[in-house]
Every structure is written in structure tokens, then in C-alpha cells.
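Hello Y.,

Per our agreement to keep a running log of every chain we model this quarter, I'm adding this entry. I've kept the format consistent with earlier entries: sequence first, then predicted structure.
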Amino acid sequence: MDKMDKKICFVFGAGEYYGASPPEPGAGDLVIAADGGYAYLAAHNTPVHLVIGDFDSLASADIFENIEIEIIRLSTMKDDTDMAAALREGWERGCRVFHIYGGTGGRLDHTLANIQCLADLAKRGGRGFLFDKETVITVIHNDTLLFPAGAQGTVSLFAHSDIALGVTIKGFKYSLNNATLQNTYPLGVSNEFTGEPGSIAVREGTLIAVYPKNL
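Predicted structure for the entry above:
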């Protein structure tokens, strides 16, 4: 799967981790815990650069008192979710690629909110990847998503904007050429890799893509 050539901001939320250990960020990457995501990272002794949130997902907000970590405390009366605030901080610190863990499972409304955050990143020229148990969710806007040869599994597409124009899909079991997708009809569900390099492009609009995590 294609990646932008920039440092990665790893953001950890208070959702489900499905028993998985945290990924290992590279040198220069940024690690942010969004509220209760800190408990997961602390349990795995994973270094954290910033903790942000109103801390309603942690047993005690006092756990940071003797820890040398940058902390941003948010009001409980706010428009942003803790995840949205964490992504904004990562953006302001120069990141354009975001890997989000603990952003699914639990409450469906939080998962949907995080997908909206992916759309916001895409429309601003960035890219976010939301890691679920077996799949990854990403969003592209007026852009192309590339997959390597040999990939296996199922890929599903959904229009996030009202309509997505000029949708072209190559290298999959079901191809499209300059098609239009609507956010009221699931035309793009359950496509399949063929072993060939794959590409998904949208000329004008925003697409949600769901594909296997083990690519």
C-alpha cells in the first residue's frame, strides 16, 4: 500500500486493541496518546511524546503528576473529540501521515467520528490510517491509492462525499473506469485482489477504503 514520504504520527485512542502489542515507531516519528490510549501504551512500556485529552477515559488524571511527558488537558466542554484534538496537534507539529490505533471497537459513534477525521486529513492533503482488528480504513480525496502485486483479500469502497466522480479501479476482480459512486448506494463493497498491482483513483470527491491489515 502506498505511503507518503513523511514522518508518521502514531495516535493511540481509548478503543479496542484486540490483544495486539503496539507498533514500533521509527526515529523522528511522533507518538501521541489520546486520553485513555495512554493506559495502553503505559502497560506496554511504549514511549509517549504527548498525552492529550479531558481524561474521562482514565481511572485517574493524577497518574501524570510524576511523569515527564508533555500533557495537554482539554475541557470536558469542547467541540473536538480527544482524537480530533490529537490529530490537530500532530498536524501542527509537521506530520501529514497518521497511524491511528485504538480508534475502533467499543462505541460505534466514536469509530464514525474517527472516520470523519480521516476525511478531514485527506481533504487537507494528508493521509490517515485507522487500524482495526483485521482491516485498515483510510480515506482519499482527489487522489490515488496503490496496492502491491501479490496482495490478497477483500477491499471495499464507500463514497464519503455525496458523489465521487471519475472513480477508476484497476487490478481487482471488479474494475471501474471513470465511474460515479454515491454515498447512498454501496456499489464498491467486497472487491477482491487478483494478484496484480492494484490502484483506486478518484478524480473529484472523497472515498473511504477498507482493506486487509496484513498487506
